[in-house]
Amino acid sequence: MAAVDLSTHPGHLARRLQQAHYLLWNTMVSEEITSPQFAVLNALVAEPGLDQRTVGERVGLDRSTVAEVVSRLGRRGLIDKVRDPEDGRRSLLRPTEDGVRTHRKLTVRTARMNQVFLAPLSADEQTVFLDLIQRVSDAAEGLRNPAEPLASPR
């Protein structure tokens, strides 16, 4: 059997893209705060007071991953948990002042990193690229729950 051309395999290319992102993140953004941690912090800056499940849904993290991310951000003093006054079994998450400052600093760095990451593409290509990977990512979310029908292409 002949070798396959991995340049036509989206999973292989996605892994290479993720490796490049990880390298840029660690060198340009933060060695302490991971990209998923930033995503959770970003969601809470946008919507303070979300519960953990909703934060996970907003940023595309499964329950166990978001639980670990929330725990780490809490230990770092970047978010606080408060009991939901309407449902004492549920905690609501809010960024601390230090969390908001950290978010502000990392937002500037992520903007610069994104410029470097997307530099091989023209402005129009960047728009198309982001639209396409968003569509594939959205469709992939449906694979997590196969009982739900996959969305049809636009």
What would you say about this model in short?
The protein is mostly helical. The chain has 6 helices and 3 strands; from the N terminus they run ααβααββαα.
Give the topology.
Blueprint: H1 10-29, H2 35-46, E1 50-51, H3 52-59, H4 63-75, E2 79-84, E3 87-95, H5 97-118, H6 123-144
Antiparallel strand pairs: 1-3, 2-3
Helix pairs in contact: 1-5, 2-3, 2-4, 2-5, 3-4
Can you describe this structure?
With 154 residues, this protein is mostly helical. It is 63% helix and 11% strand. It has six helices and three strands, in the order ααβααββαα. A three-stranded antiparallel β-sheet has the order 1-3-2. A hairpin with a 2-residue loop joins strand 2 (79-84) and strand 3. Helix 1 packs across helix 5 and helix 2 crosses helix 4. The protein starts with 9 loop residues before the first helix and ends in a 10-residue tail after the last helix.
Helix and strand composition category: mainly alpha
| Largest sheet geometry | 3 strands, antiparallel
Number of helical stretches of at least 4 residues: 6
Task: Note the run of SSEs as H and E.
Answer: HHEHHEEHH
Mean pLDDT across residues: 92
Q: Helical percent range?
A: 55-70%
Kindly report how far apart the N and C termini lie: 36 Å
Strand line-up in the sheet with most strands: 1-3-2
Determine Rg (CA atoms, Å): 18 Å
Give the strand content: 5-15%
Number of separate strands: 3
Overall 3D shape:
globular
Regions with little confidence, pLDDT below 50 for 5+ residues: none
Oligomer: single chain
